[in-house]
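Figure 6 in text form: structure in, sequence out.
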């Protein structure tokens, strides 16, 4: 199978940080079809050789194990080409069309790794030169808009030139092996399904914590914030995966139909829940791994009186028969105490207690997403370690856990998120991509939060870098008599 992959934004951050390393890994693993061409598109004039040299130099900042040897790069570089284009006007698209039509590849992938303000122009200009045939697939990177209206405008513009089945909206969390395992856990095993409901589950917590700050993306982040950057997409996709009904088969639309139903069932916000069930924070100076780090307001590119949130925690409810009344807590933030993404499913206590249990201990399933990848099943057992008080020991249970480490079992060298997603685009598999209606529904749900914040004079609550966010986040969940995992 032959392919042409056009990277709009071919000299940009995403290309050299994520896309090129992923393409190289696919090449190294032998999974990238060899009859392929990767065409970087950028504003500067450059020859193919200069582009290859630029990409080669960028690989120096990729982790060692994923860096090509000289010989490997030479073979990989044979796929790389460069085209200078002004993306905003129609003039340069004819040249792109000539380049692509001369080869007639089976699949043409247009990867839009540019500012979303250019998406509409790129799609229209592409179509004007006939580059929207059935072999074309367009990949759209997030953020896809900054609210429902702008998201819709982009979707409508793209859908005017291509049908939905040729549009691949990326949420790289769906490409993570650990997130795919979440689907496997739920729909490849019979063990948990009977328990996966309000009668047995007390609450579910989704945590995506980062130690990093905004790095070099201060200006972008300052106009975005954690709700748009992480909650509207990654966190809600995780919530869908954990809350959805079993799809009728593994086809893309069957899965996406079920995710959409979850998003549609999310309980609408009221002034009361907006006030008490959403906490926003912004990091102040603190310590990460013993090193002093500046507060958000001192990051470069950030406005000194910014009210942008770097932390969000919230309480959601899926209002349907399976989940009515079960709180789903989501929290995500930068400069938190640990880099840790996990989902914790807390089961209800036994209906009648004949043993004593240590405070806070109960049955829970922890799905570790990163950096660890695996499952922990927390149970209670009869402890054998209380020699002095044999009688007390016979009544008090001890927490124990079953630990399943997928990194150990399957190795850490599994296919990375972008590698997997790029190969899926080339092969035309849509399962791990987001449909326009899902995306719009997610925007519809977060928008009242954005509106409420605009009118809220209090601003985000400060939290010290290296902690788990503002104390109000713990207070919010404590009101339901629950607590975050690190507090148990
Ligand atoms: C991106 C966000 O989508 O996801 C970043 O824009 C964030 O702000 C990143 O750091 C987190 O991804 P990962 O794979 O490192 O958890």
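Output sequence:
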């Amino acid at each position: 199978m032959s392919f042409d992959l056009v990277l709009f934004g071919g000299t940009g951050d995403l290309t050299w940080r994520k896309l090129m390393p992923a393409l190289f890994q696919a090449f190294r693993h032998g999974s990238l079809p060899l009859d392929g061409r990767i065409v970087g598109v950028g504003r500067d004039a450059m020859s193919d050789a200069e582009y290859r040299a630029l990409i080669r130099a960028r690989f120096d900042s990729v982790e060692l194990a994923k860096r090509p040897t000289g010989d490997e790069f030479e073979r990989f570089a044979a796929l790389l080409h460069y085209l200078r284009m002004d993306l905003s006007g129609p003039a340069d698209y004819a040249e792109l069309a000539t380049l692509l039509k001369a080869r007639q590849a089976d699949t043409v992938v247009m990867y839009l790794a540019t500012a979303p303000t250019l998406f509409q122009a790129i799609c229209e200009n592409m179509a004007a030169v006939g580059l929207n045939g059935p072999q074309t697939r367009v990949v759209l990177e997030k953020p896809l808009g900054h609210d429902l209206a702008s998201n819709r405008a982009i979707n409508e513009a793209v859908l005017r030139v291509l049908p939905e089945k040729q549009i691949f909206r990326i949420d790289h969390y769906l490409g993570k092996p650990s997130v795919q395992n979440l689907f496997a856990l739920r729909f490849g095993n019979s063990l948990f399904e009977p328990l996966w409901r309000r009668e047995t589950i007390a609450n579910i917590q989704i945590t995506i914590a980062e130690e990093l700050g905004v790095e070099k993306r201060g200006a972008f982040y300052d106009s975005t914030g954690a709700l748009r950057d992480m909650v509207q997409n990654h966190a809600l996709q995780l919530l869908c995966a954990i809350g959805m009904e079993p799809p009728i088969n593994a086809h893309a639309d069957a899965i996406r139909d079920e995710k959409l139903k979850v998003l549609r069932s999310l309980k609408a916000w009221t002034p009361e829940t907006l006030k008490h069930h959403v906490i926003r924070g912004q990091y102040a100076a603190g310590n990460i791994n013993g090193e002093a780090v500046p507060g958000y307001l001192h990051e470069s590119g950030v406005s000194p009186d910014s009210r942008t949130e770097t932390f969000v925690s919230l309480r959601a409810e899926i209002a349907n028969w399976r989940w009515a009344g079960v709180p789903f807590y989501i929290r995500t933030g930068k400069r938190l105490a640990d880099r840790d993404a996990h989902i914790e499913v807390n089961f209800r206590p036994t209906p009648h207690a004949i043993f004593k249990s240590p405070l806070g201990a109960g049955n829970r399933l922890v799905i570790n997403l990163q950096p660890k990848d695996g499952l922990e099943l927390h149970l209670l057992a009869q402890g054998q370690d209380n020699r002095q008080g044999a009688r007390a020991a016979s009544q008090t249970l001890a927490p124990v856990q079953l630990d399943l480490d997928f990194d150990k079992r399957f190795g850490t060298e599994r296919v990375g998120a972008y590698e997997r997603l790029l190969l899926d685009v080339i092969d035309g598999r849509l399962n791990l991509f987001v449909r326009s209606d899902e995306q719009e529904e997610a925007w519809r749900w977060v928008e009242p939060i954005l509106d409420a914040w605009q009118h809220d004079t209090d601003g985000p609550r400060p939290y010290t870098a290296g902690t788990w966010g503002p104390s109000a986040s713990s207070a919010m969940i404590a009101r339901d008599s629950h607590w975050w995992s690190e507090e148990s």
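Caption detail: The domain at 174-487 is CATH 3.30.360.10 (Dihydrodipicolinate Reductase; domain 2).
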